[in-house]
């Protein structure tokens, strides 16, 4: 690929990816806030007694804005995260032979897994800031202290100022543990669905808008339903104290052991309901928007 075409390729995927990322934030962030809060709260004396109680208290004490707590981080980071995500996917797919033809199903999984590895370096810090904002009220209620973070920039400034730049990468290994298989599943099922909807003798470009939307929803459903426990571990580790001296979890194995001791196997499925409620519409909106914007600017 020539340098000029490589730049054009990256810019096209960046623009389309940013549009898709904005769509997923607008549609899915309220569900994500509920998910993270239910995942991260302590089992003993929890702030929220289930999904409905979490909804009620979030609205009562924070209003509609409470459901979008921490949205600034993923919204601002979409340009970088989705650019890396979709450009990596297209590049890896092309290197596997998918530039001019459809790939075998397993190669889409490989391309997706590689994408998950690359994108985690960007998504990790974005998710950490988001998680800190979303769980700030839990720490406030638990420790009877005022809310710590005013907005995402304030959170970033405090975290980096007190703990150094490396602090934003807390939970990165757990992010990789989730992203590598999850993105493989995500793009694998996405391409599988698009292939299924392709009319005989046609190409994926011939599928309808509704079928495109459904393909994204199917991908999102399997992404979350098949890898959810790893997301719980990631969220819990990112919501943990940033100071190594007071941190509860030193590594993934210790986190998994302690979570299991807290509530058995069901502890790894806390927050699953809002997650699955989010998975289909949010991911359908993202991939649908990405594909359509990509076509428009081509």
TrEMBL record:
Keyword Cell division included in the entry's annotation: no
Cellular component GO terms, alphabetical: mitochondrial membrane
Topology term for the membrane: Multi-pass membrane protein
One family name in Pfam for this protein: Mito_carr
Keywords of this entry: Membrane, Mitochondrion, Repeat, Transmembrane, Transmembrane helix, Transport
Gene3D superfamilies in alphabetical order: Mitochondrial carrier domain
Solcar repeat residue numbers: 7-95, 103-196, 207-296
Transmembrane segments: none
Subcellular location: Mitochondrion membrane
A GO term for molecular function: transmembrane transporter activity
Matching InterPro entries: MCP_dom_sf, MCP_transmembrane, Mitochondrial_Carrier
Keyword Magnesium: no
Family: Belongs to the mitochondrial carrier (TC 2.A.29) family.
Record's protein name: DgyrCDS5797
Species of the source: Dimorphilus gyrociliatus
């Amino acid at each position: 690929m020539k340098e000029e075409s490589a730049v054009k390729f990256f810019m096209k995927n960046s623009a389309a990816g940013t549009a898709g990322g904005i769509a997923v934030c607008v549609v899915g962030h309220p569900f994500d806030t509920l998910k993270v809060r239910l995942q991260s709260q302590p089992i003993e004396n929890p702030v929220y007694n289930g999904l409905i109680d979490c909804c009620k208290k979030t609205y009562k004490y924070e209003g509609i804005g409470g459901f979008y707590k921490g949205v600034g981080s993923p919204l601002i980071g979409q340009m970088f995260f989705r650019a890396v995500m979709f450009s990596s996917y297209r590049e890896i797919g092309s290197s596997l032979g998918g530039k001019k033809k459809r790939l075998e199903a397993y190669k889409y999984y490989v391309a997706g897994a590689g994408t998950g590895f690359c994108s985690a370096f960007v998504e990790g810090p974005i998710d950490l800031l988001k998680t800190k904002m979303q769980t700030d009220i839990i720490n406030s209620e638990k420790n009877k202290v005022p809310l710590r973070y005013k907005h995402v920039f304030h959170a970033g400034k405090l975290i980096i100022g007190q703990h150094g730049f490396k602090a934003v990468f807390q939970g990165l290994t757990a992010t990789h543990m989730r992203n590598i298989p999850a993105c493989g599943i995500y793009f694998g099922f996405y391409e599988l669905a698009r292939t299924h909807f392709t009319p005989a003798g046609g190409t994926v470009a011939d599928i309808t808008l509704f079928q495109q939307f459904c393909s994204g929803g199917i991908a999102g459903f399997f992404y979350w339903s098949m890898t959810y426990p790893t997301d719980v571990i990631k969220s819990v580790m990112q919501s943990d104290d940033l100071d190594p001296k007071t941190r509860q979890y030193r590594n993934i194995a210790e986190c998994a052991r302690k979570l299991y001791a807290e509530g058995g196997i069901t502890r790894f499925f806390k927050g699953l309901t809002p997650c699955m409620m989010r998975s289909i519409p949010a991911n359908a909106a993202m991939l649908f928007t990405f594909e359509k914007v990509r076509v428009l600017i081509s």
